[in-house]
Amino acid sequence: MTDTDFLEGQIILLDKPLDWTSFQAVNKLKFKLKREFNLPKKFKIGHAGTLDPRATGLLIVCTGKFTKIIPEIQDAPKEYFTEIKIGVQTESYDTEKPEILQQDISAITEEQIKETLEKFLGEIDQKPPIFSAIKIEGNRAYDLARQGKEVEMKSRKTTINYITDIEIDLPFVRFTVGCSKGTYIRSLAHDIGQDLLVGAYLTNLRRTKIGDYKIENGSAEYLKDEYSFENFNQ
C-alpha cells in the first residue's frame, strides 16, 4: 500500500477488540496510517456502522473517495454471533451494568426457548436500550441514563431475517442472528427474556458480517500485519 492508495480510497476490514469504541478504533488506525504513510492531517476516513464497546468483530473503515459509500454499507444487513444469559437482567441490557432481578429458570425448557426465538423472526417493534447513542433533544441517551435521568425510548421497526445455530447451555443461549440496519441485539436479548418471563441480557456479541463483507476476510487484505490491533497501544 502507498499514501496514494489511502488518499484515493480503501475499504479496510477491522476486527474491533472488546471495550474499544468504534471512534477509538478509527482514531487509532488514522494515527498509524498518518505516521507510516505521511498522510495529511485531514485525510478522509470514517467507519460504516457503530459497534458497541462491549461487542467485538467486523468494523468497516473507509478512506478517501470510498467514504462516499459509507451510507450504502450502513444500510446493508448485519450478522452477529450472540450469547445471552437468561434468568437475570441488567439496566444496560449487556455486561456494562451489574446483574439485577434474578429469576428461577428451572421450569424453562429448550423447546420453550426455541419457540420464543421464532417469535422474533420477521418485522418487529423494538425499543433501543436507554444506554445507547440515540439522541434525545440533542443529548445522547446514554449520557442522560448515566446521569440518572428518566429516558423514554420510542419503538421502531426492525427486521430479524434469521436466527440459526442455536445452542442452549442454561443459563446461556447462543445463536447467530441476521438482521436489518438499526437492530439492537441488546434489546433483542432483553425482549427474549421478557417473553420468557424470567429476563435476559446480552453477554457476548460479535459482528461477523455486513452485507457481503465477512469478518474472516479480516484486515490482512488491506493492511500489513504490523497494523493489527495488538500494535495499536500507543
TrEMBL record:
Limits of the Pseudouridine synthase II N-terminal domain: 42-185
What is this enzyme's catalytic activity, as reactions?
Answer: uridine(55) in tRNA = pseudouridine(55) in tRNA
Question: Which keywords annotate this record?
Answer: Isomerase, tRNA processing
Query: What domain of life does the native source organism fall in?
Result: Bacteria
Cite a single Pfam family from the UniProt record.
TruB_N
Enzyme Commission designation: 5.4.99.25
Q: Which molecular function terms from Gene Ontology are attached?
A: RNA binding; tRNA pseudouridine(55) synthase activity
Active site per database record:
D52
**Alphabetically, which GO biological process terms does the record hold?**
mRNA pseudouridine synthesis; tRNA pseudouridine synthesis
Q: Main EC class of this protein?
A: isomerase
Q: Which InterPro entries match?
A: PsdUridine_synth_cat_dom_sf (IPR020103), PsdUridine_synth_N (IPR002501), tRNA_psdUridine_synth_TruB (IPR014780), TruB_C (IPR032819)
Q: Which residues form the tRNA pseudouridylate synthase B C-terminal domain?
A: 186-228
Sequence similarity:
Belongs to the pseudouridine synthase TruB family. Type 1 subfamily.
* Function comment: Responsible for synthesis of pseudouridine from uracil-55 in the psi GC loop of transfer RNAs.
- State the protein's name: tRNA pseudouridine synthase B
